[in-house]
# Entry
Amino acid sequence: KHCMGGIWSRKDATSPSADAAPSSGGCPVMHKTATPVQGDVCPVKYKNQAVYNVYGEKLDPTNLMPATAQQLPTPDQPIPLPTHRVVSGIAKGGTDSTWVYPSEQMFYNSLKRKGKGDDVTPEDVLKMVAIHNNMNEQTWQHLLIWERFHCAKCDDPRLLRFTGRPDELSPTARIYTLMGYKGPFDRHDWIVDRCGTEVRYIIDYYHDPKLPVDQALPAQHDLSAKTQIVLEVRPALDSPAAAFDRLRMLLLRALGGQPAAPPGWPA
# Structure
């Protein structure tokens, strides 16, 4: 394929910011709760391949969620929730498929497990899941704009794994709060497989009540949905290449553009 990564088009994109954090080297997973060992074989080999949470449930190391879907209603749940899982548009690393979102029942069970579901009704969960799925689809599209810089070398970037870090402010978010602004309500670190190279992205999620909001729930792939959520997506400063990407994105946006790629990219 011919890549036009050096060309830019006049479209809006999220603004860059400056975050630096320790590199997540190794093949291919680094987690707080699971420590990989180096080896010649992928997928990863763990010192303790069976990873569990505090409830004794086995976890999937790619997302630190229970490996077995928790689809049964909780004892105090007034009505059952849907158990159907929706396929995302986010390419999954190590496979030819995409990630699959948790069902409403799984989402509710997760909240209850974390002690965050006491004031959440099943009706609330339907709204939360719709916004959650739409937000992730938008995050992936913002991330792919950055990946256009590398489309000549990789036409199939894939999300390898991710970690929620809501209690850890990124350097940029910390600066915002010091300036008197409200911090993000959530933070994710997404690890992308760029055709064999792991690249970490930082995503801060902000809520801006001043923005307009749709009355209807957002459709999964509606990138124009108004949810009052503002995304800050950028590669972490884990390498000189990431720093260079941040610099050239800053220059392109100053000119009113963004990196471009061939039609249909990624493959």
